[in-house]
Specification:
Elements (H helix, E strand, L loop, with lengths): L1 E8 L6 E6 L8 H18 L1 H8 L3 E8 L8 H23 L1
Parallel strand pairs: 2-3
Antiparallel strand pairs: 1-3
Helix pairs in contact: 1-3
């Protein structure tokens, strides 16, 4: 799973916008693409609170993109572990840039 982010000028009360992408080239069947997207969204939903508390104090909005890069459909546990690692790295980068 890859993550890309961009800081944008604050819009209303929105602190983070997310995009979840699973390429058709890697998952030919829509059922598999939709399942993977559902897994990624659920993993993000369960782990986003720390990121939100970090961003709410800032004067910018964060646009975040999650992209699948594997060819096999992972389990929920693997997606949760990957999402935790990715969000941890993102938080570290945002803290380093802000200090």
């Amino acid at each position: 799973m890859l993550i890309a982010y961009k800081k944008v000028q604050k819009e209303d009360n929105i602190s983070i916008k997310t995009l979840v992408s699973v390429p058709k080239r890697q998952f030919k069947h829509a059922v598999d693409r939709n399942r993977f997207k559902r897994l990624m969204r659920e993993a993000y939903r369960l782990q986003k609170q720390e990121l939100y508390t970090l961003i709410e104090q800032q004067d910018y909005t964060l646009h975040v993109s999650f992209t699948a890069v594997t060819n096999q459909l992972p389990t929920q546990e693997k997606v949760m572990i990957k999402m935790e690692k990715i969000l941890g790295k993102l938080k570290d980068q945002l803290v380093c840039v802000n200090t």
